[in-house]
Each structure stands twice: as C-alpha cells, then as structure tokens.
Amino acid sequence: MPIVVFTDLDDTLFQTAEKAAARAGDGPLIAAAHDRGGAPLSFHAPDQIALLELFDGAHLIPVTGRNGAALDRVVSPRFESFRITGHGAMIYDVDGAPLASWHARIQAEAMRLEPLFEALLRTLDEQFAPRAPAWRWRLIEDAAVPVYITVKAEANVPLPEAATLQSVLDARGLDDWRVHCNGRNAALLPPYACKAAAVRHLMELIAAQAPRTLFIGLGDSNSDTPYLKLCHFALTPRDSQIHQELWT
Ligand SMILES: [Mg+2]
How far is the CA of 92 from the CAs of 7, 84, 213, in angstroms? Predict the structure, then answer.
C-alpha cells in the first residue's frame, strides 16, 4: 500500500536553533533550512530525524505556510512529490510548476482580492506603526500570487492579540478570512489559503490513481488540525500547540 505523509514543516519537522536545542537535550542538531544568505537557520532534533527515517519510502508532501521560495531554502527533508505552500493557497505539481487545475482558480480569486490585501496592509500600517520594528507585517506572495499577510514579533515581544487581528478583519466584514497565531508568527488568511482544502484536492488526485493509499498527517498548529482530520492517522509533536490544547 502506498504511503503519503502530509507534513507541516516549521515546529513539526524542524525549528530554530534555540527551540531545537531545547528539544534535543544534548543530542546533535542537523541543519534543515537556510536563511536567505545561505546560513543554517532551522534544525532537526534527533527525534525528528528518527521520525523521518520511519517514513523512508513514503511520499512526503509538505503542507506549509512557507511560500515556494522559502520552501526552496529547506535542505532536509527533500520533497519529490507535490508541494503545498502559502498555508494551502498554492499547490506545486511533481515537476515543480504550479498545479494547473488549482492555480487557475486561486489566481482568479487572488486578483479579485488584491485591493483588499492593499487595504488591510494600510490598516496595519496605521494601527501597528507605533509598535514597529518589534512587530513586522507584510504581504506574502507565492508564484506571483498574493497568498496571505504575515505578522511577526521580535524575540521576547508578544504578538498582537488574536482579537486585535480579528478586529482588523471584522472592520471590513471579512467573515470568511481567518487569523492564525502560533508563537511569534501570525497570519491573516484569505479563504483560499486553506491547508485542508489543498490536502483534500491532492487526496482526490492521488486516490484516483492509487485508491488504497494510506494518508498520514503531521502538524503542530491549530491551523493544521483540519487537514490532520482528513488523514487516516495524525501525529503531533510533544509540546506543540495541538498537544498543549489537547493534553494539558
Ligand atoms: Mg508548524
């Protein structure tokens, strides 16, 4: 039976050096992703390497908030199948080009929403300027398509409250947009940036070719749970956001 593993990346398979060291104890850290300058920025802890070894021979499909360019900076693991990026807004085909059936739909939606992205950025510029540069916000694009607005906080600075970000959406009546918050990262997600919708689309494509495929999901954030629920089995790291909300 073929095995497909839909996996989140940051804080699931690897994390920053500081968090990796806390996870690894005195175990070695292995570089997993680089920054724009090519220096190692994210690392596997030994338990994450062991988990990847367990899935040796399975098809790994990333399901990540990273855009295609940021995914290209991931050096481990290697992905040779489809890739889901931009919190589910984009799907790349096996050959590395945007998946045609998916891309056409997203592009039309993104074009329609482009003025709204600009308006939301103006609102954040007005409201959050006093907190810059401790808070940073910008539009993330993927394959030249606007996919979401990211909001980040510097180390030791709390993120804006989820309710504050929600109020930015509410002020424009955007009921179908969502706020994602985890650690020092937040995002304002348009309806088409949906990991579960992208995973469902690929599951249908894959199952049409190989109906008995076993689907396994890996993820750490609350925003991962909708696609984890679609899989036959789901795994979450110890002390992840999902783990903490379910078991502590
Ligand atoms: Mg994550």
Answer: 15, 6, 20
pLDDT tens over the chain, length 248 residues: 999 999 999 999 999 999 999 999 888 999 999 999 999 999 999 999 999 999 999 999 999 999 999 999 999 999 999 999 999 999 999 999 999 989 998 999 999 999 999 999 999 999 999 999 999 999 999 999 999 999 999 988 999 999 999 999 999 999 999 999 988 899 999 999 999 999 999 999 999 999 999 999 999 999 999 999 999 999 999 999 999 999 87
The residue extents of the domains of the chain are 3-100+194-247, 103-189
The domain over range 3-100+194-247 is classified in CATH as 3.40.50.1000: yes
Measure 221 CA to ligand 1 centroid, in angstroms: 6
Distance CA 136, CA 113 (A): 22
Q: Where are the alpha helices (DSSP H) in 72-189?
A: 100-128, 162-170
Q: Ligand 1 centre and the CA of 18: distance in Å?
A: 16
Q: How far is the CA of 213 from the centre of ligand 1 (A)?
A: 24
Separation in Å, CA 56 to CA 14, 47, 49, 59, 64 = 17, 14, 11, 8, 20
CA of 220 to the centre of ligand 1 (A): 5
Would the pTM count as exceeding 0.85?
yes
Dist. CA 205 → ligand 1 center (Å): 25
